[in-house]
Amino acid sequence: MIKVAKFGGSSVANAEQFRKVKQIVLSDPSRKFIVSSACGKSSSEDHKVTDLLYLCEAHVRFGVSYESIFSQIEEKYYGIKKELGLQIDLEKEFASIRSYMKKGMSTDYLVSRGEYLTSKCLAEYLGYEFVDAADVIAFRYNGDIDLQRTGQLLEERSDGQGMVIPGFYGSLPNGTIKVMSRGGSDITGSVIANVMNADVYENWTDVDGMLTAD
Q1: Closest CA relative to residue 42, chosen from 6, 14, 78
Q2: pLDDT at 102
Q3: CB-based contacts of 32: which residues, under 8 Å, 6+ apart?
Q4: SS3 (DSSP) at 36
């Protein structure tokens, strides 16, 4: 039995939500592939990390300081790290992102960092391997996902142990980061379930009710 479990932004919004995810994942050893969105809103006053990253990109593009916005992102992840006792080197991660921002990085790279950082934190917390989506979700230059290549890359990385893979993005043949449309983490989960012949694909959320459709 192989299960792919995708957790939306509401499910990884803060440390408390991370604890819920860990209980869910570790309760079933067949949940081998975990796909994570970026941290969502933990309250009505909070902001989704992806929204903040898009704002940072706009500020960079128009030459306006993004520090106050970027600091909100940093505070969210530092809070999760502290509360869960993680060892991830966030200083290094944020320094790398800032370096790319100063060099005029692509929008796709910047907005993918929410899924990247959330998944790195979650992988450490679960004791699972972190596998960067850029290394396993293969896009063609026309924007289509190359399912055969993606399957090969995942098979090469899969050793029967649990792994956490960021949703929402992958990479082009030349290694450039490419993101999907908003909500793309659902697509990542379905692609992984497809190419790995999973028995079950679970799409978890922490929002009550059904927003638009089944």
Answers
A1: 14
A2: 82
A3: 2, 3, 4, 158, 160, 161, 162, 163
A4: strand
Closest by CA position to 163, among listed 31, 40, 28, 13: 31
pLDDT-derived band at 208 (thresholds 50, 70, 90) equals: low
pTM reported for the whole predicted model: 0.94
* Residue 77: Cβ within 10 Å count: 21
The contacts of residue 46 (CB under 8 Å, 6+ apart) are 13
Amino acid of residue 202:
E
Nearest CA to 170 among 162, 181, 160? Answer: 181
Nearest to 26 by CA among 166, 127, 167: 127
Q: What amino acid occupies position 3?
A: K
CA distances in angstroms from 146 to 2, 53, 99, 166, listed in the order given: 22, 27, 31, 17
User: How far is residue 151's CA from residue 131's CA, in Å, rounded to a whole number?
Assistant: 14
Cα distances (Å, whole numbers) of residue 141 to 64, 177, 178, 184: 32, 11, 10, 18
The DSSP-derived string for 54-119 is HHHHHHHHTT---HHHHHHHHHHHHHHHHHHT----HHHHHHHHHHHHHTT--HHHHHTHHHHHHH
